[in-house]
Amino acid sequence: MDTGDAGIEAVVFDFGDVISLSPPPEDRARMERLAGVPADDLWPAYWSERRAYDRGRSAQEYWGAVARRVGADWDTATLHGMWALDVGSWLHVRQHTARVLDRLMQRGVRTALLSNAPVDISAALRHSPVTASFEALFFSCDLGLCKPEAEIYEHVLEAMGTAPERTAFVDDREENVLAAKRLGISVHHYAGGDGLVSFLVDHGLLDASNGGAPTPR
């Protein structure tokens, strides 16, 4: 779902499942053991309440709502443990994407982050080495908006000062990519590192002659 070259000035990246790995099975298993409820009950409740959490709901409110959905009576220590395991589970970084970000930084390409993320995860990412090179960080919890709502992309475009056709957006979720594309943003539906590199090479942001390594501007 790549678009043609339009002279891209800035690349906006999603975080989860693009820069980060999906939460690994061992992290999920630790959460299931701590929760003490069947996985088939825990994860539907986890995701059903997630959008409100991403919009700025507190961790205590979020995990309290999850507990009510699964019929659990978690004490404060358990709530804290679920929170800590959850935050940590989203911080495993894809080495390949991190190397691509390094290459873009070396070439002076403007980059930004746009993530549906709760306050707790956004707080960690503001201090993460992997986001240190980004010009701007945009989080749903700060904006009260979530992808794929059009307003969140419009906010990013205004804040970055770039036209849609000169802005690239990379995300693993089709609905998020389609929403950005409808606004005229140049998009890439992330499905692996090779496709990402090809997209960036096609737009002249990385050099194809050196395995995607940057060349001086």
UniProtKB/TrEMBL annotation:
Q: Give the classification, highest ranks.
A: Bacteria, Bacillati, Actinomycetota, Actinomycetes, Streptosporangiales
What InterPro entries does the entry give? HAD-like_sf, HAD-SF_hydro_IA, HAD_sf
Name recorded for this polypeptide: HAD family phosphatase
Pfam family membership, one: Hydrolase
Species the sequence originates in: Streptomonospora wellingtoniae
Q: Which SUPFAM superfamilies match?
A: HAD-like (SSF56784)
Which PANTHER family does the entry mention?
ALPHA-D-GLUCOSE 1-PHOSPHATE PHOSPHATASE (PTHR43611), FLAVIN MONONUCLEOTIDE HYDROLASE 1, CHLOROPLATIC (PTHR43611:SF3)
